[in-house]
């Protein structure tokens, strides 16, 4: 039986991440780390223009040199993204217990691969093919982007706040479940799409007041 990868959302605030290489692939992996709160170090004699701007704006640290095993230090995630498979394997050999590695040209030796992603605020959709076809992952994410437009950022924020209020005000688990289900019906999404917060919240409060009566 084939062994499949396990999906997980990593919280990287305050953790160290090391990117080895400063080309196109390293740039993409680094860009995806920027808003995670991780400390990002890039080790490479050269950088793309975009990586240079990340250095200039203080978003990443740059060690302008070839990779050495000491660079690994206490990084949780390590990305070996140079154009030399020998260097990438050298990075793997320097890995210490507990560190996770992504090797750009060797998915078979990697502890994790990176899926294609579409973000709408707190909503994240990812597509992975376990290395079978990164292009397909990208294509499907582009298709998802057409269906799940920017409205979803507002909508997910609304759902989060609405959920918090329901948890605070409605005691009966049965009523809560019914409300959560009701909130996912399309009329709320349509209100979010029309950018009419008053109408959206009006509908919500109306629903809550009807459903929290006689609550025991
Ligand atoms: C295993 C994996 C390891 C990893 O990197 O995590 C891996 C491996 C390899 N990719 C290769 C090629 C390309 N990869 C892309 C693009 C992406 N690659 C990504 C992920 C992954 N790529 C992981 C598997 C993900 C999965 O399947 O679920 C994405 C989804 C995420 C990201 O990188 O952030 C990002 C798209 C998202 C976006 O654009 O937003 C493009 C297109 C382009 O560059 O424009 C090309 C060129 C076209 C082509 O070849 O298809 C090669 C051959 C290199 C060579 O020819 O030597 C290897 C090595 C091999 O297959 O052995
Ligand atoms: N996983 C993925 O998504 C993809 C992986 N690839 C693979 O990734 C490799 C890298 O691709 P690109 O970024 O396009 O290459 P690139 O040629 O743009 O960049 C390579 C970078 O590695 C740096 N480098 C070289 N030797 C180094 C060393 N000893 N220590 C530190 N840095 C060093 C270079 O200075 C350069 O910045 C490709 O050779 C290919 O095998 C290619 C496309 C997508």
Report what the structure shows.
With 216 residues, this protein is of the alpha/beta class. It folds into two domains: 99 residues, Rossmann fold (3-Layer(aba) Sandwich); 62 residues. The protein is 44% helix and 14% strand. A five-stranded parallel β-sheet has the order 3-2-1-4-5, sandwiched between helices. Strands 6-7 form a two-stranded antiparallel ribbon. The longest helix has 19 residues. The protein is elongated. The mean pLDDT is 95. Ligand SHN binds next to helix 1 and helix 4.
Structural class computed from helices and strand pairing: alpha/beta
Fraction of residues in helix: 40-55%
- The CATH architecture category of the largest domain equals 3-Layer(aba) Sandwich
Q: Beta-strand level of the residues, as a percent range? A: 5-15%
The number of helical runs is 8
- Spans of at least 5 consecutive residues whose pLDDT stays below 50 are none
Largest sheet: 5 strands, parallel
Order of helices and strands, N to C?
Answer: EHEHEEHEEEHHHHH
Lateral arrangement of strands in the main beta sheet = 3-2-1-4-5
E-strand count:
7
**Ligands bound, unique:** ligand SHN, 1,4-dihydronicotinamide adenine dinucleotide
State the CATH class of the largest domain: Alpha Beta
Mean pLDDT: 95
- CATH superfamily descriptor of the largest domain: NAD(P)-binding Rossmann-like Domain
